[in-house]
Design a protein that fits this description.
36 strands; 40% strand
Length: 413
Amino acid sequence: MKTMVKNILILLLFLSIAVPSFATTYYVSTDGNDKNPGTKNSPWRRCPGMAGWSSSVKLKAGDTVYFNSSDTWTLSDGSYGFWVTGGVTYIGDTWGNGKRAKFDVTSRYSANGGVLIAEDHPTIETEFKGFEVDCNMTESRGIQINYGSMRGWETVGAVKRVENCHVHHTGKNSATYGITASTHHNSTTKNIEIIDCIVHDVGHNAICLYAGYRSNNALISDVVIRGCETYKTGLRSSYGGPAGIQIKNHVENVIVENNKLHNSDLGIKIYKEYVNALPIKNITIRYNEIAHNDSAGIYVYNGPSSNVYIYGNSIYKNGRSGIKFESNLYGTLSYNISENLIHSNGQYQIVVNSSKADFKTLVISKNKLCGANFIYDPRNVITENSENEYLSNCEDVNPTILVPLNKNFKNSN
C-alpha cells in the first residue's frame, strides 16, 4: 500500500511539472484592449511582457498567444521591448490575413534586444514563431536569447525556438546583432533552435552564438540553425569580419544546416575571443549555400576548435577564399572538410595559413574544387588530402547538381 501511494505521488509530481495546468489560448490585435479577456472575439491590444501592457494578467507555461498577422505594434518603452515568458508559445503567422505580425522597435534596446528570451521552462518548450522585428536603425538588437552583457541567467531547460522570423535594420553605430544567443558569468544557455529565419541589414553579425562576454567559462550548447537566410551584415564598418553566422568562444554541439549565407563579409565565422575560454567543439556545418561574401565563405580565427565537420556545402564566388584558417590560430584543431563544392573563390579555394596551431586532424577529402588556385598550405599541416576532384571550367559548375545542397531550404527574400 505504501509503495502504491508513493508511486501515485511521484506520478502526480511528474504531471505537475510536465503538463501545464489550465493552459490558455489568447489573441492579440491592435484593435483590441488589454482589459479584454484575450479571446479571438475580444482580443488584447498587447500581451504580458510587451512594452505598454496595462493589465495585471500574467502568462504561464503552456499558454499560447496568437498575434494578428496583419498588425504592427510599436516597442518604445522600458528596458526591453518584449519579455518572452518561459514555456509560452507565441505565434504571429497563422491568425489574420498577413504574412507575419510585426514589431516596430523605436527605442534603443542594445543589450536586451527588442525581443528578449531570458527564461525557459524545465519541460515545456518556449517558441517565438512568425514575427517581423524591424529595429528601424535604432541601435537595438533584434531577438536576444539570454542576456550575456550583465547577468548570468541559466537557461538550460526545454527548447527555446525562434522560427520564421524576419529581423532587420538593427543599426550601424554599435554591435547590434539580428538574432543572438549569449551567456555571461560562467552561466549556460542550451537547447536552442533558430529555424527558417531571414536576417539582414544588421550592425554586426546576423546570427550569433556568443558565449561569455568578458567571461571565460560560459557555455552555449545544443543548438540548431536551419533554413535561414542572411545578408548585408556589418553596417558598423569599424567591427571587423561581420558574418552571416558567428560561433564565438565556448560553444559546443551545434548543427548549422540548409542555410543561405550571402553578401556579407563572411559567411560563417568560428572565433575564440578569450585566451582562457574553453575551446569550441562538436560543430557540424552541412548543406549550406555560402556565396558572394566579400572575404571568405568559412573563416576560422584566433584559437582552438575541435571536431568540426564541414560537408555537403556549396561555397562559391566569395571574394578571397572559400575556407580560410587564419594565421593567428593556436592550440589544437581538428577539422574534416569533405564532399563540398568549393569553386570560383578569389585567391584560393582553401587557405591554411602558417600559425601556432597544432592540427591534430585536418582532412580534406572528396571535395570538388574549381578555380585559379586550389589549396594553400605552406606548413603542410593537412593530415589527409585524398580523392578530391579538381575541375578546370568553373563556368560549367552547377552547385545545385554537384552536391546535395539545401534539401529543406524555404526562405527567399
